[in-house]
Amino acid sequence: MHLTQGTLDTSTTLLTSAGGAIALAAAFYGARKQLPAKKVPALLGMSAFVFLAQMVNCSIGFGFSGHLVGASLLAIFFGPSVTMLSMAAILALQVGFLGDGSWSTLGANFLNMGVVAPWVAYGCFRLLQGRRAPQLDVAQVGTLAFASFISIMAASLSVSVMLGGSIAHLLFAGTVWGLLESAIAVAVFALCVRSQSRNYVETGRLALRPLVALACVTLCLLPFSSQQPDGLEHALEVAQLSD
């Protein structure tokens, strides 16, 4: 879902860059209460997994691929402000070391995946589940799946607004992508919660072992990543052909 150089006009690029900078400053302020020292190792583990998972594109039919965004998982386990910082770091590393996206659109990508997606997922999850600790029950799993799906739809709508069109194509791609996001998020959530001891659940911490295992498995999957364009690239190609 990375916007690349040339996809946004100059005014939108400037506005999104300024908006991204303001949002990042707010995230630093908000994360002070959401990130106690005991959660830092788990945050780094989950962030590493999300960074790797975003590089593994899965072919999902309809001529395009998708990957885990991970904003909903991070937001539900660590809070939206901390998630904004994590996603900002992930997106910056992807641009700097992998050339995924561009520096000119980093602000826009951060607003879509690092602000809209986590806040929508977090708000949806808390609205339906309150302040309950992560538990492996039908209600929480169903709510997580719904929150993950809605987060991708919201991010897709945000992208379409920035582009000034292509809403139908982007929402279709976002729907398919959202289903993939929900499935992966539920699997990761179940693994992490199932691996936690009672003490970790009570203190709101995540066990590191499943996060390390997830990162290792994802690293092994990198050579098998689909070469098809992702949902955003496909939607833009379809929109150009139909014009």
Automatic annotation (TrEMBL):
Keyword Lipid metabolism: no
Gene3D superfamilies with a match to the protein in the record: 1.10.1760.20
Chief site of localization: membrane
Compartment(s) of residence: Cell membrane
Pfam families linked to this entry: CbiM
Classification via InterPro entries: CbiM/NikMN
Entry's transmembrane regions: 12-31, 43-64, 71-98, 110-129, 141-164, 170-194, 206-224
Bilayer topology annotation: Multi-pass membrane protein
Keywords: Cell membrane, Membrane, Transmembrane, Transmembrane helix, Transport
Protein name: Energy-coupling factor ABC transporter permease
